[in-house]
Write a structure and sequence with these properties.
single chain, mainly alpha, 3 helices, 73% helix, globular
């Protein structure tokens, strides 16, 4: 797969993993949240993330990466 924009990656991710049921919808929502937060962090200079938000995202991201690795490996 190839994508020209980050939004295309998000759309392709949903189409390939969430809509097919290979990945729970909650993980699709989490990925969307990360995408939105990245947009805000990059383009809204006044956006400040709390330590709690970052810690929560980091913990969930570790689990998310683990699940994605299993999907890619076919486990």
């Amino acid at each position: 797969m190839q994508f020209a924009r980050h939004s295309g990656v998000l759309s392709g991710f949903r189409r390939t993993f969430v809509k097919t049921g290979r990945l729970d919808k909650a993980w699709g929502s989490f990925y969307h949240t990360l995408f939105e937060d990245r947009q805000e962090g990059d383009y809204l200079p006044t956006r400040v993330f709390s330590t709690e938000e970052v810690s929560d995202h980091l913990a969930k991201a570790r689990e998310f990466v683990s699940i994605i690795r299993m999907l890619i490996d076919g486990s």
